[in-house]
Structure formats: C-alpha cells, structure tokens
Design a protein that fits this description.
Blueprint lengths: L1 E3 L6 E15 L6 H8 L5 E15 L3 E5 L6 H9 L6 E6 L3 E4 L12 H11 L4 H15 L14 H12 L6 E4 L8 H16 L3 E5 L3 H7 L2 E6 L2 E7 H12 L3 H6 L11 E10 L3 E10 L5 E9 L2 E7 L10 E8 L6 E11 L5 E4 L4 E5 L22
Parallel strand pairs: 1-5, 4-8, 4-9, 6-7, 7-8
Antiparallel strand pairs: 2-3, 2-5, 9-10, 11-12, 12-15, 13-14, 13-16, 16-17, 16-18
Helix pairs in contact: 3-4, 3-5, 4-5, 7-8
Length: about 400
C-alpha cells in the first residue's frame, strides 16, 4: 500500500522491506472446457520471488538510478512504486504527486488519428479540451510528427507511437517522476530532446527515478543509484560508482561466468588497482595508482577524465615499458587545462597483450574547478594562440 511519507521535508519515497512474489500456474487452460474441468481440481502453483526485502530512501531532488540485468527485478520495483503492482510484503511511503512514465501510450486507440489520440491521452492525464488545444502544437512539434497527425495511429511505427506518448506525458505535472529507459527513443536528434528534458528536470530539482541499461546516462544524470541483482540490492551509493561496478561485472567473459559458481566462495582476484588523490592545489592534482598482480602479466594503467558521464581526456602508461608485479605510479594533472565543472577520474589496469581489462580502479576520483566559464560549458581549455590579422 502507498501512504504519505513519514518525513515529508526530506524524503520523497521510502521503501521498507518490500518483497514481491508471483504465482505461476503449472496448468494452462486454453478453452472454456479445460477451465471448467480444472475448477474442481486443486490447481498447483510455482512461486517466483522477484523482489526480496528492498529498502531504500529517495530524497527530494534526487535523480535516482535503478540498474540491473534483465530479470533482476528493477522494472517490477518501478511498477510497485507506480502503484501498478502491489507488494507482497513491506510498504512504500510517498510524499507528493507521482507521475509514472512507464506504460507510455496506454489508452491509445489505433483506429483514431494521431490528433484524436493526443486529446484522448490528454484527458486521461487530467487535461480539459481547452488546455489540450493550448499545448497541442507544442506536443506535435516535440514529437516531430506534424505530417502524420491526421493518419490513424495503427499506421504509425512503434517508435512514432512512443514519441507521441512521451511528448504528451511530459506535459503532466508531478512532484516525482518515474522514467523508464524506453524514453530514449527515435533517432539521435529526438534522443537529444529526451536528454535535454532530463537536464531540465535536474535544474528544476525534480525527484526522478530512472531505470536504464545505459550506464553513460546513469552517470550523466543520476546522483544516486542502486544495483539490483536477483531481486536484492547488491550495491547502493554514488551513481557514477554504481555504473562503473555494473560495467565491470558485465565485461566478464562468458567463460568466466560459466566456470564460476555464484553460490560458492569467490576466489581472490589476481589483479587489483587502487586510485587516490595524494596532493591537490588550485592548479595541480597528483594522483597515485597502486597496482597488485599475482602473475607475471605485462600491464599498463589508463585513466579517463569524465564530465557529465562523457570522457574529455584519456591517458595510459607506456606499453613499451610495461608494469609488472606490485607497485605504484603517480601522475600530476594540470587543472588549468579544464573549465568550470565537476569531473570524475576512472582508472583501469589492463594486460598489454590483447588490451584485456584486469581491474577497474577503486574508488572513482573526483575533483571540481570553480570560477567563471566564458566558453559556454566546454570541458577543456585550448591554448590562447590567436594571431591578429591586419586588414
């Protein structure tokens, strides 16, 4: 059940020990006769526990990511938050009006035109006809479907339908938004519109719960995240760190996954990389990378500097003079090369042969550049080598 949150000043959604179990019938009735015959029998079910004791607090203003592999339970959790499913155990406490962007296009009628469906879907969202007339042109322009609005919806592609549904849904007003990854639809230009909308939500300090397999989007937009595996929260914390852990675990080779026993003891890793900031001034950042290897691999260390989830600079140690065994290496970063912003440094330890990933450096390092930026948000500064040209 959904109730008002206990701490409305800080918490938007509180999830306490939520579990969800589905009953899967062993027999399938495909005709009325088989259904009547089975009525007298005691039907057997198999219970599938999708979520197990999920507890988390989402604070007001959070852009909160939920990540996990297919079948991990993340979409089920999102539907419980939206009120589509009822939890088998535990409870959810919500403070504010919640708008789910999950089942986009529910209520669309394929026999009606795109224009008629806009007004129909708007009515389901609580808009009256006068309000819909006022925002109709904005909806159509955002969806980029001006030429198709008088066609029946059944002639639309699935991508066109989702674009139209998304364009309508973003007009709904809510304190808390639930976003599914299906929102990044269409071509690159429309995806950029979706991401611009996400940026607007961040600027407005809206509370957003975002489910996605796109770790770059999670790193770019989310400030917190949880990693769900087999219906349980495996890890929670900073969104960038969660995204890096998720990427590392999904880079495991199929042979390793097949040979490994998830229920047995985990062997200690052969390789490890630790990253830390050992000195920082206004213009310099000294980073130290400590590596350990239990074999004789020829290795190198690489790091990427990211802003908003996008790499803006990268560097590796020499491949001709590889690293071996245990040791550490330091690098002095010139901070004057960067414009205003918050940056992350993610590092990796790789084998020279085949450039195989051995370990991702922990933790992710962060630094910020303060001041004024007159270049409209670019990450890197170029050297001022303008040459005046006389007329």
């Amino acid at each position: 059940m959904i109730e008002p949150a206990l701490n409305p000043d800080e918490v938007a959604i509180s999830v306490h020990e939520v579990g969800k179990t589905f009953k899967l019938p062993h027999e399938k009735q495909t005709t009325l006769k088989s259904a009547l015959l089975s009525f007298r029998k005691r039907r057997s079910f198999e219970r599938q526990q999708v979520l197990k004791n999920i507890s988390l607090d989402i604070h007001k203003g959070d852009f909160f990511g939920i990540v996990g592999r297919n079948g991990s339970g993340k979409s089920t959790l999102l539907k419980i938050l939206a009120g589509i499913y009822t939890p088998t155990s535990g409870n959810i406490q919500v403070n504010g009006k919640l708008t789910p962007f999950i089942e986009l296009g529910v209520g669309f009628n394929p026999e009606l035109t795109g224009k008629e469906n806009v007004f129909l879907n708007g009515a389901l969202l609580g808009f009256n006809r006068k309000e819909m007339k006022f925002i109709y042109n904005d909806i159509v322009q955002f969806a980029e479907l001006e030429q198709f609005m008088d066609q029946k919806l059944k002639n639309y592609s699935s991508g066109m339908q989702v674009r139209l549904a998304f364009s309508i849904a973003i007009r709904a007003q809510g304190d808390i938004l639930l976003l599914d990854e299906v929102l990044a639809v269409g071509d690159a230009a429309f995806q950029q519109k979706c991401y611009n909308y996400f940026e607007k939500l961040k600027q407005e300090k809206k509370t957003v719960i975002f489910v996605s397999h796109d770790m770059s989007a999670v790193s770019r937009f989310c400030n917190k995240a949880v990693y769900i595996e087999s219906g349980e929260i495996k890890r929670a914390g900073d969104a960038f760190d969660i995204a890096e852990v998720y990427k590392l675990e999904n880079l495991e080779s199929p042979e390793k996954k097949a040979d490994g026993n998830s229920n047995g003891p985990k062997p200690s890793p052969l390789h490890n990389l630790k990253a830390e900031i050992v000195e920082q001034t206004s213009n310099k950042l000294r980073m130290k990378f400590t590596y350990k290897s239990k074999d004789n691999s020829n290795m190198y260390i690489g790091f990427s500097i990211l802003r908003d989830g996008v790499s803006v600079a990268e560097l590796t140690t020499s491949h001709e003079e590889p690293l071996n065994g245990d040791g550490h290496i330091e690098y002095d970063l010139d901070k004057s090369l960067f414009n205003v912003g918050v940056y992350q440094v993610t590092s990796v330890l790789c084998r020279v042969e085949g450039r195989k990933l051995l370990s991702i450096g922990q933790p992710t390092l962060k630094f910020s550049i303060s001041g004024k930026d007159i270049t409209r948000g670019a990450a890197m500064k170029l050297e001022d080598t303008w040459t005046p040209v006389q007329p």
